[in-house]
Amino acid sequence: MGRTIAVSGSASGIGRALAGLLRERGDEVIGIDLHEAEVVADLGTPEGRAHAVRRVLELCGGVLDAVVACAGVSQFTSLPVRVNFFGVTALLEGLRPALARAERPRAATVASISGTQPLDEAVVAACLDGDEEAAVAAAEKVVAAGQGNKTYPSSKAALAQWLRRVCITPEWAGAGIPLNAIAPGVVRTPMIEPLLADAAMVKIMNEAVPMPLGGHADPEVIAEALAWLISPANTHMTGQIIYVDGGAEAILRGPEVF
């Protein structure tokens, strides 16, 4: 019997690959995206997040087997803070009661190898405080200082820390809901296709994210890993950031971090 699963970012990239994989397995997927989805919503705004949660709850009848928050952006602006952190956390928290009503609920999101890279502590701290406007203001300050490349890793690092903080609470672990993340290396998605077409940028990416095992990944690789995290087989893994990155994290952080 198929399960009912909400997937954000379902119109492209990893989210699209995952939605297709789940549907092939017989699951009902409630896609969430800016277009071409069962729920059309902008997770970069409070209004869009509230609309997304409300429509998913209507479509699933208040009971949801799994949620995978894949939607994300990589601009060197403050937008990653709004979408990658607040969009993800609001969606997961908003749908958590529906997960708690399911027999074997699961939840997952997409972190990033970039979360191990230089970031801005003020952005991360404001995110973890749940203060969106302060986080955005801190991100805009970073951008104005010519360090916009820090907003994306800061949003992903904050997301990973939030996940590890809440996953063991009564609301998540206590309700029987495993909450984990896949942290990809470089993935061939529409989000980075323009960069992959630039030889100079490819060189920079390969130096920043070395992937000796397999090189750059296709979205389906990440989708398969996410599918396992939200499968009924995952009964005891929670709070884990699983690096599907061709070995990049092991190289960048060394053997002492495990």
Automatic annotation (TrEMBL):
Record GO terms (molecular function): oxidoreductase activity
Extent of the signal sequence: none
Assigned keywords, A-Z: Oxidoreductase
Matching InterPro entries: NAD(P)-bd_dom_sf (IPR036291), SDR_fam (IPR002347)
Family membership noted in the UniProt record: Belongs to the short-chain dehydrogenases/reductases (SDR) family.
Entry protein name: Short-chain dehydrogenase/reductase SDR
Organism: Thermomonospora curvata (strain ATCC 19995 / DSM 43183 / JCM 3096 / KCTC 9072 / NBRC 15933 / NCIMB 10081 / Henssen B9)
